[in-house]
């Protein structure tokens, strides 16, 4: 078999000029076809003629009877193009386990596992045999109508559009709008890029259950912009595709298998970048002291309006103001969360040691506080009994971002739901309830928390005399 002509196509049109790797691959495939053909013929003379290269590529013989290699390669590429198979992005066979185990998103592909890191898929990679990821469809209501396939760069499906650079593809069971869910979906990308040369994406592609989403919520948008600059959320506006990605990173388990250290590092980076962007130029506030040399403790009561606001905000404010005033060095502040811009949220949290707030998305900002800062959380009546695991979201976030969740208060008073046996109906009844107060309990609780925080600050102050790495220098953030 003669292959010495393989450089020849490169002297012809650019289209025919293929990379060396590619040629080697096809020479290999071509040899296989020939070897297979010859062997089959020798071993079994009844071998079906349609499997012979002559039958597969009858058009590839020259008049002299030799193989025209350029033609054979083109024919092979054509076959590879046509064999690219698109599968539905959302696989209904896995609808029962969509949140656990095997996700329904790209169900035929196995995650790459690295110890203590989030499961992910990367294309092209060894796991994808060098193939790129392609997507087709842009349905926003039915994930089974969108599909994915793998293809080699040299044989992308007909009329595919190649999107250059690195693409971050996120599928979440929840959404990219809510602060808590948004940061849970984004954290593994942040961590991956820290581990991979601080690489930035050229675009995001967002999915929920395989349904395309055109934007992330504005809070998450800000957070990501601070980390990666202006990055478009791909809407596939040139039609249904297929679109293939030069490089793609897919995350579909939110924080998934990320270990404690990895989560802390991701949130450390998010804190560092946000503080820097918002003009708060300390990585860590460290110990601030009053004129008597005793540590200052900043206590912030973070309020909500409407659902889950306090029934009597004045009373609650008075209780905590008094509790704070009883501790030397404690400084009290009340902040209305809805009135804060993104950077105001970052700044309020950066300056607080203790944040007391009703359950709600505003608490997601907790990771902008110094590590080891404290959270106190309040729930309306009915949550403890009917809200399920989700009510512990801020306990988990505190754990992930290195904060101390100092407990929650579940209001026991208020209207009973009409049908206490119906969990879901009851949850909806109580979901937007307001939070009452218990003066005795709140006073004792605040006293205990402030005492512990003070004690920790005193201990830390003796340990850390010189605090020279606090300033937010250009090198401070890991990326
Ligand atoms: C092989 O095929 C190419 C493209 O079809 C053609 O340009 C070329 O002349 C052929 N070469 C030979 C030796 O027949
Ligand atoms: C994915 O993993 C399962 C279980 O380990 C294995 O049976 C299957 O062949 C793998 N699939 C691919 C495409 O690698
Ligand atoms: C709210 O609490 C304040 C202070 O404890 C009290 O004076 C006021 O009457 C209460 N308001 C309502 C509507 O109960
Ligand atoms: C957080 O507090 C613990 C003790 O509760 C201490 O060991 C640790 O060093 C603190 N971490 C930071 C970052 O200050
Ligand atoms: C989070 O919780 C786990 C298990 O309860 C614990 O081992 C870990 O130390 C916690 N991490 C932080 C930062 O508090
Ligand atoms: C308020 O809290 C105190 C202290 O925990 C408790 O003894 C008391 O029963 C509570 N009052 C109400 C009305 O729940």
TrEMBL record:
A GO term from the CC aspect: Golgi membrane
Localization in the cell: Golgi apparatus membrane
Keywords: Glycoprotein, Glycosyltransferase, Membrane, Transferase, Transmembrane, Transmembrane helix
Domain of life according to the entry: Eukaryota
Species of the source: Coffea arabica (Arabian coffee)
MF term (GO), any: pentosyltransferase activity
Transmembrane segments: 20-38
Domain Glycosyltransferase 61 catalytic: 285-375
InterPro entries in the cross-refs: Glyco_transf_61_cat, Glycosyltransferase_61
Record flagged with keyword DNA damage: no
Protein name: Glycosyltransferase 61 catalytic domain-containing protein
Main localization category: Golgi
Topology relative to the membrane: Single-pass type II membrane protein
Record gene name: LOC113713676
């Amino acid at each position: 078999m003669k292959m010495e002509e393989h450089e020849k196509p490169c002297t012809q049109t650019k289209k025919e000029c293929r990379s060396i790797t590619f040629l080697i691959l096809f020479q290999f495939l071509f040899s296989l076809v020939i070897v297979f053909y010859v062997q089959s013929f020798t071993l079994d003379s009844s071998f079906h003629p349609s499997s012979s290269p002559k039958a597969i590529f009858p058009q590839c013989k020259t008049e002299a009877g030799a193989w025209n290699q350029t033609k054979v390669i083109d024919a092979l590429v054509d076959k590879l193009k046509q064999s690219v198979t698109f599968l539905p992005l959302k696989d209904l066979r896995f609808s029962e386990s969509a949140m656990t185990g095997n996700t329904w998103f790209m169900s035929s592909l196995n995650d790459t596992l690295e110890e203590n890191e989030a499961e992910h898929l990367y294309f092209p990679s060894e796991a994808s045999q060098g193939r790129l990821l392609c997507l087709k469809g842009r349905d926003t209501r039915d994930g089974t109508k969108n599909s994915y396939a793998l293809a080699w760069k040299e044989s992308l499906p007909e009329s595919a559009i190649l999107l250059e650079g690195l693409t971050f593809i996120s599928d979440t069971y929840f959404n990219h709008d809510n602060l808590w869910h948004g940061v849970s979906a984004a954290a593994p990308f942040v961590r991956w890029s820290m581990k991979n040369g601080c690489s930035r994406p050229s675009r995001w592609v967002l999915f929920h259950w395989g349904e395309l989403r055109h934007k992330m919520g504005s809070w998450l948008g800000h957070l990501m912009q601070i980390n990666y600059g202006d990055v478009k959320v791909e809407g596939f506006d040139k039609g249904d595709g297929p679109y293939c990605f030069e490089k793609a990173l897919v995350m579909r388990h939110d924080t998934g298998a990320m270990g404690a250290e990895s989560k802390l590092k991701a949130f450390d980076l998010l804190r560092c970048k946000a503080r820097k962007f918002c003009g708060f130029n300390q990585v860590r506030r460290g110990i601030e002291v009053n004129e008597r040399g005793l540590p200052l403790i900043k206590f912030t009561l973070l309020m909500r309006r409407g659902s889950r606001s306090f029934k009597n905000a004045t009373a609650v404010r008075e209780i905590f103001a008094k509790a704070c005033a009883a501790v030397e060095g404690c400084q009290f502040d009340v902040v209305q969360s809805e009135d804060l811009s993104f950077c105001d949220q970052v700044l309020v949290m950066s300056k607080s040691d203790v944040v007391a707030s009703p359950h709600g998305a505003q608490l997601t900002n907790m990771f902008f506080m110094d590590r080891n800062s404290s959270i106190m959380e309040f729930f309306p009546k009915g949550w403890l009994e009917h809200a399920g695991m989700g009510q512990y979201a801020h306990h988990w976030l505190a754990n992930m971002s290195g904060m101390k969740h100092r407990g929650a208060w579940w209001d026991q008073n208020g209207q009973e739901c009409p049908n206490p046996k119906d969990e879901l109906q009851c949850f909806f009844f109580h979901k937007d309830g307001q939070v009452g107060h218990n003066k005795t309990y709140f006073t004792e609780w605040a006293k205990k928390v402030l005492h512990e925080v003070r004690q920790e600050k005193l201990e830390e102050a003796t340990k850390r005399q010189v605090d020279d790495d606090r300033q937010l220098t250009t090198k401070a953030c890991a990326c």
